[in-house]
Amino acid sequence: QVQLVESGQGLVQAGDSLRLSCAASGDAFRSYAMAWFRQAPGKEREFLAVTSSSGIQTYYASSVKGRLTISRDNTKKAVYLQINSLKLEDTAVYYCAGDTLHHYAGDRDPVEGDFSSWGPGIQVTVSS
Predict the structure, then answer these.
(1) pLDDT digits (tens, 9 = 90+) for 24-64
(2) Which residues fall within 8 angstroms of residue 27, CB to CB, at 6 or more apart?
(3) By three-state DSSP, how is residue 128 classified?
(4) How far apart are CA 69 and CA 51, in angstroms?
């Protein structure tokens, strides 16, 4: 497993852009697919984006495609999530997650149970 910690600006304004970072420790990082999820108050944890271990392949939830960009830097053991045109409904706790995904067939959006390593999450609040 790897240990993950998210960081970034916690309070932003609607219409702004935000980049979240996730720092990883552990040698397994380079073999892990990495993803971002979020959980809004009273809602289930929602998949946003995933990138392959190399960073070459990415996949996004249809609800956010076009506004979000996931990337990674394996030399820094870091994963990033860029969110553009922030909306009030982007307010949530954002989590990064990792796993080899060897068991994942790719026939559906990834879900929380597909990932074994999680960061503690970071609160992002979008204000008007």
Answers:
(1) 998 899 999 999 999 999 999 999 999 999 999 999 999 88
(2) none
(3) coil
(4) 10
